[in-house]
Amino acid sequence: MHLFPDLRGQVAGQLTALSAPGAPLHRDSDQSTARLYLRSDIGRARFQKDTIDWYLSQANPRLGGRTAIVTAGPPGAGKSALLRARIADLDEYRIIDADIIKDHLIRQAIADGIYDRLLATAPFADGHGLAPRELSALVHVESVRLAEAIRQTCTSRKENVVIEGTLTWHRQGPNIFRELADNDYVDVEVYGIDIEQKEAHESALDRWWKLRLEWAKGQHDLGGRFTPADAIDMCYQTASAESVCTANAKNFINTAIQTGEIPRVHVTILRRSATGPIEVIYERSYLQ
């Protein structure tokens, strides 16, 4: 239950306008770090290398297990919570999550002062300005590039990895499969979250708003990550169909059958039931 549902809607509307193409919070804005710092920028390249080193230092996963977990689902689907609930030995895996990198980039951007003007913009309907995580779209491109570099390093080491993502793009799954096969991975688990479009919208809004309220009270340093509606809508071809994320997760099996290059591939699609628990709605395996 939301204490101020109308206020939440007003602030979401204001952020949506600022996140539209051509607006300052759109991921292709001139304010994005991918545009502010050229690839030839030596200082930024050094910072990116330091970021990769920092990320790799955060965990000590099992080496040589050659096991990968891949997640799929629209923003707001609850993929991270799913992993914690279903994977008992998660500490043995390197979790590769671009959202963790986003937070690191945002903290650095604030320290560098590059978004001071944006953070000082006029307050929204709730009386507060931008929370730091509401800048996430501006570090999106750079965070994805860094996540890919980290993933390639980890798979070359044959670490146990969790590759968190949406699988919205139809080529993302085959590309990940190819990288894992080229590095001799033997076991791949794919977990997809099936969630209705309307529910995904509500979940993303609810998560963002709760953290924004905490940030406004001084109880959270970054606040919530706002997801514009179109970032969720692109995951659905029609309102009644399953998400493209689910379809692309299922396609891992077809890739496994066609190539025969990874000995075991298992795909599980889950959905939260009306009474709350997570239930399996699709399961298929490929085993050599």
Question: What order do the helices and strands come in, and which of them pair?
Answer:
Layout: H1 5-18, H2 33-36, H3 42-56, E1 67-72, H4 79-86, E2 94-96, H5 98-112, H6 116-119, H7 140-156, E3 161-163, H8 172-182, E4 187-193, H9 197-216, H10 229-233, H11 244-259, E5 264-272, E6 278-287
Parallel strand pairs: 1-3, 1-4, 2-3, 4-5
Antiparallel strand pairs: 5-6
Helix pairs in contact: 3-7, 5-7, 8-11
Question: Could you walk me through the main structural features you see in this protein, from its secondary elements to its overall organization?
Answer:
This is UDP-N-acetylglucosamine kinase. Residues 64-246 form the Zeta toxin domain. It comes from Mycobacterium parmense. By secondary structure, this protein is α/β, with parallel strands linked by helices. It has one domain: Rossmann fold (3-Layer(aba) Sandwich), CATH 3.40.50. Helices cover 45% and strands 13% of the residues. The chain contains 11 helices and 6 strands. It has helices at 5-18, 33-36, 42-56, 79-86, 98-112, 116-119, 140-156, 172-182, 197-216, 229-233, 244-259; strands at residues 67-72, 94-96, 161-163, 187-193, 264-272, 278-287. A 6-stranded mixed β-sheet has the order 2-3-1-4-5-6, covered by helices on one side. A hairpin with a 5-residue loop joins strand 5 (264-272) and strand 6. Helix 3 packs across helix 7 (140-156), helix 5 (98-112) packs across helix 7 and helix 8 (172-182) packs parallel to helix 11. The model has no long low-confidence stretch (mean pLDDT 94).
